[in-house]
Amino acid sequence: MAHLTLLLVMIFASATLSDLLIKDNAWHAWKEYYNKIYASDDEESLRYSIWINNLKMINQHNSDKSKSFTMEMNHLGDMTIKEVHLMLNGYNRMKETKSHGSDAVTFLPPSNVVLPKEVDWRTKGYVTPVKNQGQCGSCWAFSATGSLEGQHFKKTGKLVSLSEQNLVDCSLKFGNYGCDGGWMVRAFRYINANGGIDTEASYPYVGADEKCHFNKSDVGADDTGYVTVKSGDEDALKMAVGTVGPISVAIDAGHSSFAFYNGGVYVEPDCSTTFLDHGVLAVGYGTTEEGQDYWLVKNRLVISFRPSKCPVAVGEQAGEWKATSKWQETSTTCVELLPMQAILWFEGTLGDYELP
Ligand SMILES: *[C@@H]1O[C@H](CO)[C@@H](O)[C@H](O)[C@H]1NC(C)=O
Q1: Cα of 217 to ligand 1 centre, how many Å?
Q2: Locate the Peptidase C1A papain C-terminal domain: which residues (predicted)?
């Protein structure tokens, strides 16, 4: 009798899930909006159960007013955090600090410097718009170009967007793995040995591994080397960001809170200070009105699909777009429906980085 009851419950439970799936208009709207097509009903059931769990988690988070940031459903909604992680985060963490190489010099904070309370290099012209990484584990390349773009601007007064694809295709000999991941310092070493990096315009991003076609006559910037900031030393990082410019950093992005981040000061209690999987760019720091210290971090967009009805513009306005995608509702404005990972500029926690 006990067995029968259990069996009935199980049948009822699974019927409820597919009933829910069929009736759930939000699910169908989300699926349609993001062009999700599943191979079978079983696959759809599985994806639906993941999606509904993510949605519950997001709603629960957002209803907690003590949180300093909000989350939002996006195109990653039908994936587990493990799957998201495998798809997007390409910063390969090496054991200890071997990845820095023997040529690495440690940053010595200048003495007698009074740091500003707030720094935002975007407002000083050091930072290019947020770029689209697509489905390629090339975050390390975006982080590297970001810091060199800043230093190039500092030196020449010209903001030149530099080619991530050049790094993806051509720095394999320096130990990077293209779309399968890499390290910012290895990108800097490649650029130095190569005699420069091409401009974004001459060597555009395709988001897949290609044959290297670097062309010396299209070089947009060069580096003479790099300096590392002591891992875990936030005062040194603050000094570096405050006096040098945007700095390449690595963070632990392997959490649902990151995948569905929407806005505010990102705080993840489970963030690791040693297991770092994502390269980004620290472009400033400050303190909120509530007294919370933050790092201002440039991340990348992840647009890997295009809704059929709306042209997707990537680039100029990217940094302006607030994550207001209202996929539950029908809307005709493309900007509101812009599909993207909700992270544009975000303010990170203190303490989760390694340099460069
Ligand atoms: C390199 O770029 C220059 C200028 O854009 C062009 O004239 C030349 O043909 C290019 N070389 C190759 C090998 O593509």
Answers
A1: 7
A2: 115-320
Spatial CB neighbours of 310, under 8 Å, sequence gap ≥ 6: 334, 337, 338
CA angle at residue 339 from 337 to 344, to 5 degrees?
110
**Which residues contact ligand 1 via a Cβ below 6 A?**
215, 217-218
Which of 54-63, 101-110, 296-305 holds the top average pLDDT? Answer: 54-63
The number of residues making up the chain comes to 356
Considering the entire predicted model, what is its pTM?
A: 0.78
pLDDT in tens, 68-100: 888 888 888 999 988 887 776 666 644 334 445
**Residue 215 Cα to ligand 1 middle (Å):** 6
CA of 125 to the centre of ligand 1 (A): 29
Is residue 189 helix, strand or coil? helix
The residues carrying an active-site annotation are 139, 278, 299
- The sign of the CA dihedral 44, 50, 54, 57 is positive
Q: Which two tokens stand for residue 228?
A: 């590392």
Report the distance separating Cα 69 and Cα 345, nearest Å.
13
Is the CA virtual torsion 262, 264, 265, 268 positive or negative?
Answer: negative
E strand or H helix that includes residue 251? strand 247-251
Read off the tokens for 218. 């299209």
The amino acid occupying position 164 is E
